[in-house]
């Protein structure tokens, strides 16, 4: 089964990414695993207006997600919720 582990913060060197890497280490011998960090989202995603069309790099990420059997999110708690980048990324 193809598994995509998503590190759910765009902060560099985050604990979420460390946990995602640990999970990858634990499961990669049993499953086909890949990590996707929200740090790797296009830098202009939040500054440019892409409401009328999808950002070109996002289309590749969407295809990666669609071809995955399991999505595993590693998301930090942030003031009783989760980071805004996760909310924005789900639009």
Q: What shape does the CA trace take?
A: globular
**CATH-derived topology:** Rossmann fold
Helical amount among residues, as a percent range? 25-40%
As a percent range, the share of strand residues is 15-25%
Largest sheet: 3 strands, parallel
SSE string: EHEHEH
The CATH architecture can be named as: 3-Layer(aba) Sandwich
Strand order in the largest sheet: 2-1-3
Task: Map the helices and strands.
Elements: E1 2-7, H1 15-27, E2 32-37, H2 56-66, E3 70-74, H3 84-89
Parallel strand pairs: 1-2, 1-3
What does this structure look like?
This protein has one domain: Rossmann fold (3-Layer(aba) Sandwich). 15% of the residues are buried. The chain is globular. A three-stranded parallel sheet has the order 2-1-3, with helices on one face. The protein has helices at 15-27, 56-66, 84-89, and strands at 2-7, 32-37, 70-74. With 91 residues, the chain is α/β, with parallel strands linked by helices. Helix 1 links the parallel strand 1 (2-7) and strand 2 (32-37).
